[in-house]
Amino acid sequence: MKSILRSVTIASALVLGATMAHAAVTDAEIMDDAASTNQIVTYGLGHQGQRHSPLSQISPDTIKDLVPVWSFSFGGEKQRGQQSQPLVKDGVMYVTASYSRMFAIDIKTGDELWQYDARLPDGIMPCCDVINRGAALWGDMVYFATLDAKLVALDAKTGKVVWRKELGDYKAGYSATAAPMIVNGKIITGVSGGEFGIVGKVEARDAKTGEMVWSRPVIEGHMGTLNGKETTMTGVKNASWPGDMWQHGGGATWNGGTYDPETNLIFMGTGNPAPWNSHLRPGDNLYTTSTLAIDPDTGEIKWHFQSTPNDGWDFDGVNEFVLFDLKKDGKIIKAGAKADRNGYFFVLDRTNGKLLSASPFVTKTTWADGFDLKTGRPNVIPANRPGNPANTGADGKGSSVFVAPAFLGGKNWMPMAYSPATELFYVPANEWGMDIWNEAITYKKGAAYLGAGFTIKPLYDDYIGALRAMDPKTGKIVWEYKNPAPLWGGVLTTGGNLVFTGTPEGYLKAFDAKTGEEVWKFNTGSGVIGSPVSWEQDGAQYIAVSSGWGGAVPLWGGEVAKAVKDINQGGSVWVFKLHGK
Ligand code: CA
Fold first, then answer.
1. How open is the CA angle 97-131-72, to the nearest 5 degrees?
2. pTM (predicted TM-score)
3. Which domains are delineated in the chain?
4. Which of the residues 129, 314, 340, 435 is marked catalytic?
5. Active site residue 314
6. What is the pLDDT of residue 79?
7. 78 C-alpha vs ligand 1 centroid, how far in Å?
């Protein structure tokens, strides 16, 4: 009996070796991803979003020996921004790339196993470059969302399409770039398009078939669905929106979500209300610029925290809500933290959404003077809200104000990381402000729906980007690293007391997690705006990151864009390990 089992095992191993097929990814493996070190099967290195690898082979002592193993080119004459986070399973890396492409790569050799290119129609409307942030794995399939707002399931072994579903009408401005999330056999997605007056939503589909389970629009007045039938209305129609403005209210859920098995809640951020001109929609404009806690079984909203009510600065509240245990006054609070576009670092009780603290993580937050912890609302400075063009002249310039942060945010999409060892968050922040003014606007399908103009400006001569270690207990900045160009890449922490992040200047850099001392850097040949990862295989700890400059800064950065115009494009993924390991 023993020998039969043994031969069966050897036979399957041979088949696996020949085809590089991975074993089916289970829901249990997905839930355990933060603790497992030999694979990466979720965006965020665990649905909690901590981006922490417990591995410690690479440390401040050993990192001098960290060298490239291979680099893989995404090829093509079109490159643009590479913002993806690789996944790793059974010796295969799955990494997405610009223009809605996905690659499967043999980790040992860097050989391509397959490539999938989405055929994108003319007329797609991504606001902020043709990027993609990553894939999801479940069963025998690998999934990603494409710029024409489709969700694609591929056979992980061959890259062949299994199913393909529409997330929204790309002709109305819907697109998709976030990594999907799998929660107990359902695939959870959001949508992009807040600059075109779309209606943000969160949806769950059967991961096997792609059939819709529930849909939850995030703008008050719209109906949700469950199993093909209408369920509940989101909020109360016209409670926080005037007239029919809710019909094109924005709130794009464009950055994906996190999930907490302990409370069984999905956390999704929502973007700016549309249009940007806030005088056209007096009211809180729920549930824009918020963190939403959603029941993964029904799509019902369990609580919300709105970080910028009646947003007038494009302070999308989409930033990732990272789950952690807050140790305070001898108690452990089930908490979550979010470094918001609006410049505040929020700590919430994740069981009920109660605001525990709001601390600035950038030097200037001139739109508001702090938050009231009792009401959870900002103390808005009315003079720094761009004015009403109805009162200040037709060209709108009379309504202009200078305000910080700029609309690209104290932090934008790029995910921060948490280290359970140091109990610190590491926030990729930027220091900039903007002139912003309002203009008249009416909704037109497929056209930009802003009603605002703007110019982004640096605040300081010597730096824009700042990687900041934040203590969630005190809201204090423990250390910072200043970077000349704006930071636009994700962060990784490791059990080896390291923090990794990339720079537009081309470097993947590593810092001592406790002191902030820069201990290693490597130039990848183009700007690094992807999210680094780490895993172990055959006794070695690996680090990987995508390289390729692009994203929103060169497109929308105003005076900052001029400062980074000479950075070269690229498109590759780099893999590192210690020499000799
Ligand atoms: Ca926006």
1. 25
2. 0.95
3. 2-578 (2.140.10.10)
4. 314
5. yes
6. 87
7. 25
